[in-house]
Design a protein that fits this description.
With about 230 residues, the protein is of the alpha+beta class. Helix content is about 55%, strand content about 15%. A 5-stranded mixed β-sheet has the order 1-2-3-5-4, with helices on one face. The longest helix is centred in the N-terminal third of the chain and has 52 residues. It starts with a helix and ends in a 13-residue tail after the last strand. Its EC number is 2.7.13.3.
Length: about 230
Protein backbone atom coordinates (compact mmCIF):
# COMPACT_ATOMS: atom_id res chain seq x y z
CA UNK A 1 0.00 0.00 0.00
CA UNK A 2 2.83 2.37 0.87
CA UNK A 3 4.50 1.69 -2.48
CA UNK A 4 1.22 2.28 -4.32
CA UNK A 5 0.71 5.57 -2.48
CA UNK A 6 4.22 6.68 -3.44
CA UNK A 7 3.56 5.77 -7.07
CA UNK A 8 0.23 7.63 -7.01
CA UNK A 9 1.82 10.76 -5.52
CA UNK A 10 4.57 10.63 -8.13
CA UNK A 11 2.00 10.34 -10.92
CA UNK A 12 -0.03 13.27 -9.54
CA UNK A 13 3.11 15.39 -9.30
CA UNK A 14 4.06 14.43 -12.85
CA UNK A 15 0.63 15.49 -14.13
CA UNK A 16 0.92 18.81 -12.30
CA UNK A 17 4.33 19.47 -13.82
CA UNK A 18 3.01 18.64 -17.29
CA UNK A 19 0.12 21.05 -16.71
CA UNK A 20 2.59 23.74 -15.63
CA UNK A 21 4.75 23.28 -18.74
CA UNK A 22 1.71 23.28 -21.02
CA UNK A 23 0.19 26.38 -19.45
CA UNK A 24 3.48 28.28 -19.53
CA UNK A 25 3.98 27.45 -23.22
CA UNK A 26 0.42 28.59 -24.01
CA UNK A 27 0.82 31.81 -22.05
CA UNK A 28 4.11 32.66 -23.76
CA UNK A 29 2.53 32.27 -27.20
CA UNK A 30 -0.60 34.15 -26.18
CA UNK A 31 1.55 36.93 -24.74
CA UNK A 32 3.61 37.21 -27.92
CA UNK A 33 0.49 37.52 -30.10
CA UNK A 34 -1.29 39.84 -27.65
CA UNK A 35 1.68 42.20 -27.37
CA UNK A 36 1.96 42.30 -31.17
CA UNK A 37 -1.71 43.23 -31.50
CA UNK A 38 -1.60 45.68 -28.61
CA UNK A 39 1.68 47.42 -29.40
CA UNK A 40 1.92 47.15 -33.19
CA UNK A 41 -1.55 46.91 -34.75
CA UNK A 42 -3.22 48.95 -32.01
CA UNK A 43 -0.66 51.76 -32.26
CA UNK A 44 -0.83 51.82 -36.06
CA UNK A 45 -4.63 52.12 -35.91
CA UNK A 46 -4.35 54.95 -33.39
CA UNK A 47 -1.90 56.80 -35.68
CA UNK A 48 -4.22 56.32 -38.67
CA UNK A 49 -7.10 57.60 -36.58
CA UNK A 50 -5.13 60.75 -35.68
CA UNK A 51 -4.18 61.34 -39.30
CA UNK A 52 -7.79 60.89 -40.36
CA UNK A 53 -8.98 63.29 -37.70
CA UNK A 54 -6.62 65.97 -39.04
CA UNK A 55 -7.47 65.31 -42.68
CA UNK A 56 -9.16 68.13 -44.58
CA UNK A 57 -11.97 66.35 -46.41
CA UNK A 58 -13.42 69.57 -47.90
CA UNK A 59 -17.02 68.91 -47.10
CA UNK A 60 -17.01 65.12 -47.17
CA UNK A 61 -17.94 64.97 -43.49
CA UNK A 62 -20.20 61.93 -43.89
CA UNK A 63 -17.34 59.90 -45.45
CA UNK A 64 -14.95 61.09 -42.77
CA UNK A 65 -17.42 60.21 -40.01
CA UNK A 66 -17.98 56.70 -41.40
CA UNK A 67 -14.26 56.00 -41.77
CA UNK A 68 -13.56 57.35 -38.28
CA UNK A 69 -16.34 55.15 -36.87
CA UNK A 70 -14.88 52.06 -38.53
CA UNK A 71 -11.39 52.98 -37.31
CA UNK A 72 -12.63 53.32 -33.72
CA UNK A 73 -14.33 49.93 -34.00
CA UNK A 74 -11.07 48.37 -35.25
CA UNK A 75 -9.12 49.90 -32.36
CA UNK A 76 -11.64 48.51 -29.87
CA UNK A 77 -11.55 45.09 -31.58
CA UNK A 78 -7.72 44.99 -31.50
CA UNK A 79 -7.76 45.92 -27.80
CA UNK A 80 -10.41 43.28 -27.05
CA UNK A 81 -8.55 40.53 -28.92
CA UNK A 82 -5.29 41.44 -27.19
CA UNK A 83 -7.01 41.47 -23.81
CA UNK A 84 -8.64 38.07 -24.38
CA UNK A 85 -5.37 36.48 -25.52
CA UNK A 86 -3.26 37.75 -22.64
CA UNK A 87 -3.82 40.32 -19.86
CA UNK A 88 -1.08 42.62 -21.17
CA UNK A 89 -1.40 45.28 -18.45
CA UNK A 90 -1.92 42.92 -15.50
CA UNK A 91 1.71 43.12 -14.42
CA UNK A 92 1.50 46.88 -13.98
CA UNK A 93 -1.97 47.19 -12.42
CA UNK A 94 -2.19 43.90 -10.47
CA UNK A 95 -4.83 41.17 -10.22
CA UNK A 96 -7.40 43.05 -8.12
CA UNK A 97 -7.67 46.10 -10.40
CA UNK A 98 -7.66 43.91 -13.50
CA UNK A 99 -10.55 41.81 -12.15
CA UNK A 100 -12.39 45.02 -11.26
CA UNK A 101 -12.05 46.06 -14.89
CA UNK A 102 -13.45 42.68 -15.99
CA UNK A 103 -16.37 43.16 -13.58
CA UNK A 104 -17.08 46.61 -15.02
CA UNK A 105 -16.99 45.25 -18.59
CA UNK A 106 -19.48 42.48 -17.71
CA UNK A 107 -21.78 44.62 -15.57
CA UNK A 108 -24.39 44.80 -18.35
CA UNK A 109 -24.60 40.99 -18.44
CA UNK A 110 -24.40 39.87 -14.80
CA UNK A 111 -23.84 41.19 -11.27
CA UNK A 112 -20.35 40.37 -10.03
CA UNK A 113 -19.07 41.32 -6.59
CA UNK A 114 -15.54 40.80 -5.32
CA UNK A 115 -14.36 40.80 -1.72
CA UNK A 116 -10.63 40.99 -1.11
CA UNK A 117 -9.84 40.62 2.57
CA UNK A 118 -7.38 43.05 4.21
CA UNK A 119 -3.76 41.98 4.04
CA UNK A 120 -3.81 40.67 0.48
CA UNK A 121 -0.37 40.97 -1.11
CA UNK A 122 0.39 41.00 -4.81
CA UNK A 123 1.48 37.58 -6.08
CA UNK A 124 4.02 36.73 -8.75
CA UNK A 125 2.87 37.34 -12.31
CA UNK A 126 2.35 33.67 -13.23
CA UNK A 127 -0.05 33.07 -10.33
CA UNK A 128 -1.99 36.30 -10.93
CA UNK A 129 -2.38 35.52 -14.64
CA UNK A 130 -3.69 32.03 -13.84
CA UNK A 131 -6.14 33.38 -11.25
CA UNK A 132 -7.39 36.00 -13.70
CA UNK A 133 -7.86 33.32 -16.36
CA UNK A 134 -9.76 31.10 -13.91
CA UNK A 135 -12.09 33.96 -12.90
CA UNK A 136 -12.54 34.88 -16.57
CA UNK A 137 -13.32 31.26 -17.54
CA UNK A 138 -15.71 30.77 -14.62
CA UNK A 139 -17.68 33.95 -15.38
CA UNK A 140 -17.83 33.14 -19.10
CA UNK A 141 -19.20 29.65 -18.39
CA UNK A 142 -21.76 31.01 -15.92
CA UNK A 143 -23.01 33.66 -18.34
CA UNK A 144 -23.29 31.11 -21.17
CA UNK A 145 -24.77 28.13 -19.38
CA UNK A 146 -26.16 28.70 -15.88
CA UNK A 147 -28.89 31.40 -16.06
CA UNK A 148 -27.28 32.98 -12.99
CA UNK A 149 -27.84 36.61 -12.00
CA UNK A 150 -24.96 36.92 -9.52
CA UNK A 151 -21.34 35.86 -9.17
CA UNK A 152 -19.27 36.29 -6.00
CA UNK A 153 -15.48 36.31 -5.79
CA UNK A 154 -13.71 36.01 -2.44
CA UNK A 155 -9.93 36.32 -1.99
CA UNK A 156 -7.97 35.97 1.23
CA UNK A 157 -4.34 35.47 2.20
CA UNK A 158 -3.45 33.02 4.95
CA UNK A 159 0.01 32.45 6.48
CA UNK A 160 0.78 29.46 4.25
CA UNK A 161 -1.66 29.72 1.37
CA UNK A 162 -4.10 31.89 -0.50
CA UNK A 163 -7.80 31.05 -0.76
CA UNK A 164 -9.98 31.98 -3.72
CA UNK A 165 -13.68 31.15 -3.76
CA UNK A 166 -15.84 31.79 -6.83
CA UNK A 167 -19.56 31.02 -6.75
CA UNK A 168 -22.81 31.82 -8.53
CA UNK A 169 -26.57 31.43 -8.04
CA UNK A 170 -27.28 29.62 -11.30
CA UNK A 171 -28.44 26.11 -12.13
CA UNK A 172 -25.38 24.37 -10.74
CA UNK A 173 -24.33 20.88 -11.76
CA UNK A 174 -23.33 17.53 -10.33
CA UNK A 175 -19.58 17.45 -10.80
CA UNK A 176 -19.35 13.65 -10.65
CA UNK A 177 -21.96 13.22 -13.39
CA UNK A 178 -21.55 16.20 -15.68
CA UNK A 179 -19.46 15.90 -18.83
CA UNK A 180 -16.29 17.94 -18.28
CA UNK A 181 -16.20 20.57 -21.01
CA UNK A 182 -13.23 22.68 -22.03
CA UNK A 183 -14.19 25.37 -19.50
CA UNK A 184 -13.85 23.06 -16.49
CA UNK A 185 -10.76 21.38 -17.95
CA UNK A 186 -9.06 24.74 -18.52
CA UNK A 187 -9.81 25.84 -14.96
CA UNK A 188 -8.49 22.62 -13.46
CA UNK A 189 -5.39 22.63 -15.66
CA UNK A 190 -4.52 26.16 -14.53
CA UNK A 191 -5.04 25.18 -10.89
CA UNK A 192 -2.70 22.21 -11.34
CA UNK A 193 -0.08 24.46 -12.91
CA UNK A 194 0.05 26.45 -9.63
CA UNK A 195 0.45 23.25 -7.57
CA UNK A 196 -2.82 24.24 -5.90
CA UNK A 197 -5.69 22.24 -4.41
CA UNK A 198 -9.35 22.74 -5.33
CA UNK A 199 -12.84 21.46 -4.70
CA UNK A 200 -16.12 21.97 -6.52
CA UNK A 201 -19.05 22.47 -4.17
CA UNK A 202 -22.06 21.99 -6.43
CA UNK A 203 -23.73 18.68 -5.67
CA UNK A 204 -27.25 20.11 -5.72
CA UNK A 205 -28.86 21.34 -8.90
CA UNK A 206 -30.44 24.80 -8.91
CA UNK A 207 -28.25 25.82 -5.97
CA UNK A 208 -25.48 27.40 -7.99
CA UNK A 209 -21.87 26.30 -8.32
CA UNK A 210 -18.79 27.06 -6.29
CA UNK A 211 -15.10 26.34 -6.59
CA UNK A 212 -12.71 26.65 -3.67
CA UNK A 213 -9.02 27.02 -4.53
CA UNK A 214 -6.08 26.92 -2.13
CA UNK A 215 -2.75 28.05 -3.53
CA UNK A 216 0.44 27.40 -1.53
CA UNK A 217 2.25 30.61 -0.69
CA UNK A 218 5.29 29.83 -2.80
CA UNK A 219 3.48 27.52 -5.29
CA UNK A 220 6.63 25.42 -5.69
CA UNK A 221 6.89 21.80 -6.73
CA UNK A 222 9.13 19.51 -4.67
CA UNK A 223 12.81 19.62 -5.69
CA UNK A 224 12.44 22.42 -8.20
CA UNK A 225 12.62 26.15 -8.32
CA UNK A 226 9.57 28.39 -8.45
CA UNK A 227 8.03 28.20 -11.97
CA UNK A 228 8.48 31.94 -12.45
CA UNK A 229 12.16 32.08 -11.68
Amino acid sequence: MKEKNVQHEAEVLHQKKLALENIKAQEEERKRIAVTIHDDIGNRLNILSLWLNNLDTKGDEIIKKNIYSQMSALIDAARSISHSLYPVNLESVGLVLYVEELIANLSHKINISMQVMPGYKKKDLFVEVQLYRIIQEFTTNVIKHSDATDIWIYIKDYPYNMAVVISDNGQGFDYDKVKKGMGIKNIESRIQSMNAAYKWKNTFLNKGSRIIIKIPKHNEFPNQDSPDR
